[in-house]
Amino acid sequence: MADRTTDKRQTQMTFHDEFDKPQTGPVGLHRGKRSAAARTMPYIIVLVVAVLCALLAWGFLSGNIQALVGGGTAKPVVTATQVKDAVKKRTSASTTSKKKASSKSAKKSSSSTSSSSSDSSGSTSTDSQSSSQSPSQAAQADHSTQVVVFNALPATVAARNGYAARQAALLTNAGYTSVSANTLTSGLPQTNVVWYRSSSDEATARDVASKLGISAVQQQTSLREAVAAIFVSAQ
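and the corresponding structure tokens:
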């Protein structure tokens, strides 16, 4: 009976060694679970690179790559809508001036017929003096006015590089103290033109046009600068 009990205990007995209870946690070539920051870092890097590429592409296409890279402020660009508005205003202004001229000529002819020869000669001399001095000619150019010279010459023109800076130097040598140069890639006019924002800047705009050899001078109320000279062709 005792021998059977001993055999039974030996049969139920199990043997354990150090390999039957492995250590807790990763062992050998196994790695632990990465953190959330480590898993999302590649996506963040890809997103930042995509944003930088988009900004560089926008700066290249819009012509403001110099302002984007150098940290400067991009100059405003005149749009095609503003050009159309300027053309409409110029057309309406020319029509109004023609009507006024015709009405003045009719008044002059009627007054000369009713008045005597001596009075008509005196009135003619007075009218000629008043007409010779228009408001734009009576006003003087303000050399402290902000003037921006835009280079809109095609890339095929040999003198394109630095053309606006050379024209701006002419104004600086003429006494203007607030002159800058920039490029223009959209909303281009048909010919070289000088735009001014308000009527008080008209005299300055005409003086700038005469010094740069530009014949067209137009008012552009939506212009951010006081006076802007745009070159689409080299002179």
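(Above: one complete record from the training split.) Strands lie at 147-151, 179-183, 193-196, 216-219, 227-231.
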